[in-house]
Amino acid sequence: MNKKVYTLCLLSNDTHVLLGLKKRGFGEGYWNGFGGKVEEGESIETATRRELLEEAGIHAARLEKQGVNSFEFVGDPVILEVHIFSVPEFSGKPKESDEMRPQWFKKNDIPYHAMWADDKFWLPHFLAGQRFAGVFTFKDKKLLKHTLNIFDA
Q1: Which of 41, 79, 95, 113 is a Cys-bridge partner for 57, taking CB atoms 3.0 to 4.6 Å apart?
Q2: By the 8 A CB rule, do 70 and 135 touch?
Q3: Alpha helices in 23-152 (DSSP H)
Q4: Phi-psi region of 119 (alpha: psi -120 to 50; beta: other; left: phi over 0)
């Protein structure tokens, strides 16, 4: 199996989380965090900062890694390894890009019905400040199986 490394980051405070509506490409029409592919020669943290700036106009002053999820798609030999970060310190106001439309959501009003099926399993742990690692297997956009391990901080 081949592996591609990706990043994902989310901004949150005590009551809200910032998500982006994907406007094109992989995951179009779904609410998600901000991130993308790690380019050759780029660190995971540098890619996270670049993607957040490109997609939402926000500068990440500090990142905290909270998890790694692996995604397998039936029939595709490539595993997506996604490193997930919180952004406790940032500057700038979220602004729409050609790829994402950012919007703040109350934590008790997250649109899980319009997100990837795996998000409802790991995102509550992310928002609780927990560390985690998961493996999610999809066929098309349907989640077939998953494992999720939660770690003490």
Answers
A1: 95
A2: yes
A3: 44-56, 119-127
A4: alpha
Token readout for 23 is: 């406007």
- 131 or 26, higher pLDDT: 131
Mean pLDDT of the chain: 95
- Among 64, 48, 56, smallest CA distance to 91 is for 56
What does the pLDDT look like over 65-82, one tens digit per residue? Answer: 999 999 999 999 999 999
How far apart, in whole angstroms, are the C-alpha atoms of residue 104 and residue 120? Answer: 17
The SS3 call for residue 123 is helix
Q: In angstroms, rounded to a whole number, what is the distance separating the alpha carbons of residues 112 and 109?
A: 9
Residue 152 is predicted with a pLDDT of 75
Q: Are 102 and 19 in contact (CB under 8 A)?
A: yes
pLDDT at position 1 is 65
**C-alpha to C-alpha distance for 13 and 57, rounded to whole angstroms:** 18
Smallest Cα–Cα separation from 143: which of 30, 55, 21, 20?
Answer: 30
pLDDT of residue 140: 86
Residue 58's nearest CA partner among 91, 15, 21, 105 is 91
